[in-house]
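Q: Convert this sequence to structure tokens.
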Amino acid sequence: MNEEIAVLEHLNIFNRVISELLAIDVKIDEKNKALILLSSLSQSYDHIVTTMLYGKKILILEEVTSTLLSNGIRKMPNQKKQTGSSLVITGRKGRGEGRTV
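A:
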């Protein structure tokens, strides 16, 4: 994995390669797909690779993918952080409109 490539793009490339292998009848089980994906990551993901390899008894591709996506979203430099939130409270029957707190 190239350091400049976003994790989502890397996952897309990985899935494309797996699809191409399936098209020529190369079967890869889910555990091996997870291992291949983890081994294809750059050094900046070493902490995730270590956690996934040694923190679990069974490697599940979906868990590896969701962990990578969560980490990728968290690392996004242009991600806007939401600073506030609102709660809408609706009144009882006959009390009028809801209000925002």
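Confidence is low (pLDDT under 50) at residues 79-91, 97-101.
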